[in-house]
Design brief:
By secondary structure, the chain is mainly alpha-helical. A 5-stranded mixed beta sheet has the order 2-1-3-5-4. The termini are far apart. The protein has 23 helices and 5 strands.
């Protein structure tokens, strides 16, 4: 006879049930290791590489993103080498760290290891399977374990009434700010829930105030180290950028919504709902289960608050890009695990051993459970089928049946981003310049700088900072600063990008070159058209006997004109 465990399953089944989820995670993660970097990720990689060579963000390379993401990319390079693969491998492993934090939060709330383990697995599996190459390895994904830890601290503080938990929540909240300031929405929501719960439990106001003291202290401990590093190393430039773009032009720029009004936004949201429908329905079932059985689930309202606050933070940003939704995956995974655990409990409660009992022996009144299982299995099969093309391409590429160009075609984003075009542009620069020569890219493609291993001639690695409001004194000052950098560095090449669409350059950088006449004159006098690689126009510096760079006085005259 086959040996059986206590639950009636054969002994060989239990190890299989443990290893199968890990194998599924590995299968889901494998294609992501071959993902290329794109525009935003290229900026993070370039700035992180710059920092590892003694540079500083914002002082040596301007970008709108807070600095924590550069530190994460730098850690990836330090661990696995300077490459795109290093970022992707680190991102895969980091998702497991996020899963671990989700496990701790789910276990703290529900005191159930099955729900906790399933929550962590669902998050990692959905992240690997559903998040596209251009959305992964962004600040939002790296922010997940920090945000989850902050919520965990508030939940544990209510249960244990210890100050250390509040200190932990504050430290995590302070550090999360340096990934994305919108993390504050989640932090404030979690603290508001904590205060409301303490009020309902009729705790003393003095206790509430002491709790906030520890949270604030922890927040300073998490916030100050990076703030002190930035002081004198780009903090002023960062604050100026946030003042000009973080609350003005960038907020007003259009995102994925192609039209005006709520219907345009709803159309984008419905697209995500269709893509993530399995997780959506499960998490909604989890929310309803928690709201109906509040006494049974204890502090589970914290997870619902976590979900609603991440949704609010996403909508507040207004762009609706996929990476903005990644923090929503954390609470959604926990709620989905609650729904699945509840379904499993119903099945096991109605049949002694559902895996060994034929369907004909199930109670006739169990049609709701049977329907739920059929729908769940159908959604799983649908989700898997949608991913088959990606796995076929990956297998063909690894087996040598598909060329790199054919494989990379799946990463082209319309006419906006070409994987092979970016690689070829970087290769052209690397072959036609020396390692110590600088390059100027007029556009939004710092990835070319990272792949070519060449330094930018200026800290303005994005052109949108130099166009727009011509009458603004700050724009004029930036243009003069830019021209001073270019005159000093004398870049070997100026690369003008034709169709690099961003919210701040909706027409592309080439179209906005006319807004900067001084740069056009510089191209005409000191450079000549050398080559074109897809959307990249290469201008090579002329020899000294043919033309020379403008003097600073000439540049100032052109700028003023």
């Amino acid at each position: 006879m086959t040996a059986q465990s206590r639950d009636g399953l054969p002994n060989w089944v239990r190890p299989l049930l443990c290893t199968a989820p890990l194998a599924l995670l590995a299968v889901a993660a494998l294609p992501t290791l071959l993902y290329p970097l794109t525009r935003d990720q290229g900026a993070y990689a370039y700035i992180a590489d710059l920092m590892m060579k003694g540079g500083a963000p914002y002082r040596d390379a301007l970008d709108l993103k807070p600095p924590a993401v550069y530190l994460v990319y730098g850690l990836a390079f330090a661990l696995f080498g300077r490459s795109e693969f290093a970022v992707r491998l680190f991102d895969v492993l980091y998702a497991l760290v996020s899963g671990a934090s989700i496990y701790l939060l789910a276990h703290e709330v529900f005191h159930d290891r099955r729900i906790a383990a399933l929550s962590a697995w669902i998050y990692a599996f959905c992240y690997y399977l559903w998040i596209h190459f251009y959305a992964a390895a962004n600040p939002e994904s790296f922010m997940v374990p920090v945000l989850t830890t902050s919520v965990l601290g508030t939940v544990r503080a209510l249960r244990t009434r210890t100050r250390n938990s509040l200190l932990l929540a504050g430290v995590a909240a302070g550090f999360a700010f340096w990934f994305k300031p919108t993390a504050g929405v989640v932090v404030v929501a979690a603290l508001a829930w904590m205060v409301l719960t303490m009020w309902q439990e009729q705790r003393r106001m003095s206790s509430v105030l002491r709790n906030f003291t520890f949270v604030i202290l922890g927040g300073l401990l998490g916030f100050l180290p990076i703030a002190l590093y930035l002081y004198g190393h780009g903090l002023g430039e960062l604050m100026e950028l946030w003042r000009d773009y973080g609350t003005g032009a960038y907020v007003g720029a259009r995102g994925l919504a192609l039209g005006e009004g709520p219907l345009a936004v709803l159309d984008v949201i419905m697209g995500y709902l269709r893509h993530w429908q399995l997780l959506v329905w499960l998490s909604l079932a989890g929310v309803l289960g928690i709201l109906v059985g509040r006494e049974r689930y204890g502090r589970a309202e914290a997870v619902v608050v976590y979900l609603l606050s991440t949704l609010a933070a996403t909508l507040l940003q207004g762009k609706l890009f996929e990476y903005h939704w990644i923090p929503v995956l954390a609470p959604a995974a926990i709620l989905a695990a609650v729904a699945l655990a509840g379904l499993a409990s119903e099945i096991s409660g109605q049949t002694k051993n559902p895996l060994r009992t034929p369907l004909s022996a199930w109670p006739a009144t169990d049609m709701r459970t049977l329907f739920a299982v059929i729908v769940l299995v159908g959604l799983l099969l649908w989700t898997g089928y949608d991913q088959l093309a990606r796995y076929r391409q990956t297998a063909a590429y690894l087996a040598g049946r598909m060329s790199e160009e054919q494989y990379s075609a799946q990463f082209d984003i319309g006419t906006d981003f070409s994987r092979m075009g970016t690689l070829r542009a970087a290769t052209y620069l690397r072959e036609h310049t020396e390692p110590d020569e600088t390059v100027l890219i007029w556009g939004a493609e710092p990835l070319v700088l990272f792949l070519s291993e060449r330094r930018s001639a200026t800290k303005y690695i994005f052109s949108y900072m130099l166009v727009g409001d011509d009458g603004s004194p700050r724009v004029k000052a930036r243009r003069q600063d830019f021209l001073d950098d270019v005159r000093k560095a004398e870049p070997a090449y100026v690369v003008v990008v034709e169709r690099d669409i961003t919210p701040l350059t909706p027409a592309g950088s080439l179209a906005q070159l006319d807004e900067f006449p001084a740069l056009k004159i510089l191209l005409d006098t000191a450079y000549y058209r050398d080559a074109q690689v897809e959307d990249y126009l290469f201008y090579r510096r002329k020899a000294r006997d043919r033309a020379s760079f403008m003097t600073s006085d000439e540049e100032s005259f052109i700028c003023q004109a």
